[in-house]
Amino acid sequence: MTVDLDALIARMTWEQKLLQLQIVWRPDAAEREALLRRGIGSTFWPPSAEEANEAQRIAVEETELGIPVLVGLDVIHGQFTIFPTPLAQAASFDPAVAELDARVSASEARSAGVTWTFSPMVDVSRDPRWGRVVEGFDEDAYLASVFAAAKVAGYQGRALTAGDSVAACLKHFVAYGAGEAGRDYNSADVSDRRLRELYLEPFRAGVEAGAATVMAAFTSLNGTPMHAGRALLTGVLKDEWGFDGVVVGDADGVAQLVQHGIVPDERGAVIAAIEAGVDIVMGGTVLVDSDGVAFVSPDELSEERVDDAVRRVLRLKQRLGLFEHPYVDASAASHGTTERYRDLSRQAAERCTVLLTNGGALPLPDRGRILLAGPYARSLDHLGTWVQHFASTVRESLADAVAAELPAVDWDIVDGCGFFDATDASLGEAVSRAADADLVVVAVGEPSRISGEASSRADITLPEAQRRLIHALCDAGARVAVVLVTGRPLVVEDWIDRVDAVLCVWHLGSEAPAAIARTLSGRANPGGRVPMTFPRAVGQIPVHYDHERTGRPARTGRALLPETIAEFTGPNNTDDYYTSKFLDLPLGPRFDFGHGLSYTTFALEGFSLSTEALTADELDAGLRAEVTVTNTGDRAGDDVVLLFVTDEVASVTQPVRRLRGFSRVTLAPGESAAVGFRLDADDLRFWADGSRRVLEPGEFTVTVGDGTSEQRLALRLEEAA
Ligand code: BGC
What we know:
The protein is an alpha/beta fold. The strands form eight sheets. Strands 11-16-15-14-12-13 form a six-stranded mixed beta sheet, sandwiched between helices. It has a five-stranded mixed beta sheet with strand order 18-26-25-20-21.
């Protein structure tokens, strides 16, 4: 059945139209029912298949127009079965991990009556103080774009009408991750060039992948709060990119235009937002009250714009097949996770761990006495941010999981401290137990509640109690391997050089303890990479791999502030003195984007390009880069090969390198594989300003690397004859 949307819109009253443009922020059951009877267009998930069906029944059978509702929910990294957080997923450098999460999420959600998820978040960020970096993928536009497309493909499946597909929502449009100082909801000021190159790019990729909806950002960008950002919401997203889906406002984001101080009242806010291109208002402003009175009149808001918004909402309902099939089979609905999905979640989790350092303590021996210490030894807090109260629980602790994984080890378990508190006695106990152990595994980190929305941190070190535990153990001479559970890159300077190994495991979801235990034992070999640079100090932020060149690049860092004036002018005053660096930090970050070790070793050889020089026309047909990667160690493992391009001379200052391809390969000991990449003109283009994307002839450098070694080749783009 195809509904004639124009005919339907022609029958609608002004009030009925406005009702389609609203989702109320988490109403209680009675309020929801009243809103549904009034004819509201969308609702948050009730939360069960039966109640979702009841919501549809009221909409379809008890309202004059019988239009089904969109049922929205934040299914961010799992509905019942929780997968690793999006940041962790990006660390896998394997988009199949993100697609799998989204497929499982969609099947659990849709079967229970959800039709629309507010995910993926594709905001790139270079500021780990921002708590929401855990909900996004990374600091890089290319990686984020690949993951955005994978998530959209996973959520939306082959067809939105399928019983295991939900509409995706790219959020938060745009530059939410650029908020000053990483403080959530803070304003951003971004050049048009950077907006195009960095912040818009993952949205463009997600729209190209067919994302059904987009959410506006809370932030004000260059003086315009995004909920009133007509030039971007309508100008770029809808007009330039041809996006014909729905733009939803964020929770109360429309009403907050008043707090932003660009409109005097909520009426002005609704008008500004809808005129700017918001199609659905999320939150408190009720567009039509319980007496059926509209909040704004057709004199205040263009009917043409309202009709366009209504058409977008109805079109989405049609794409989801809701006019024909508003109900789900409640008897077949997911009510919780399954062993099969848990197993998929564990497999995904094992692909996301990053081995940051290793002096040989990992993988763990399968015998001997090992002390497992730290608050994550027994905590079940592995789900990460943005999970709903009905999510599956974590069934075992890391202590249980390591005991099951390495049964011949003589395990001793001690907390040593809480997440935020330590006493001399608790630290002392850990130290004395460590004296009897051959090795200490310290499981520390950020509990889920201190990353995510509204969880910016000014100090991104481990909570002090946990640092004290690490230092106490190291002071006592213990050999320490750290399991680092985190929602963001942390500053680890004070302890990292004291410990033997660090395995970063992020928040890995429902099956985290088993995945961590299998990685500690070596049954799973860590193959993930850092998707966001780990700074050495908060003062170094923003720090990211694709920084632009400066006129005074530094060659060596300075580890110490000079103590005397003589040192400024004495032997330390080399020609590297007046260069771009911090006097009190070594050069560069602690861990660069792309860093990650393995229990085996790899070698990259035979890097080649299909040609060293070509014209733009020839480039359209594509250029091939190829390198051979060999597992030179004695156990199977995964290498991630990254391909970067550097534009050596351009009319606009360019980043030192830009990621243009990556590939994760699994190799048996001694095995080799050829890894190929295709480069085309788009990979060499850059935004000259906010309106022009150019391809300039000249010299380029193409680099392949895997975080431990790299190879470079020159490429020349010639003027057309
Ligand atoms: C968040 C969104 C989320 C929405 C609905 C807001 O506070 O910023 O990302 O989708 O709530 O739950």
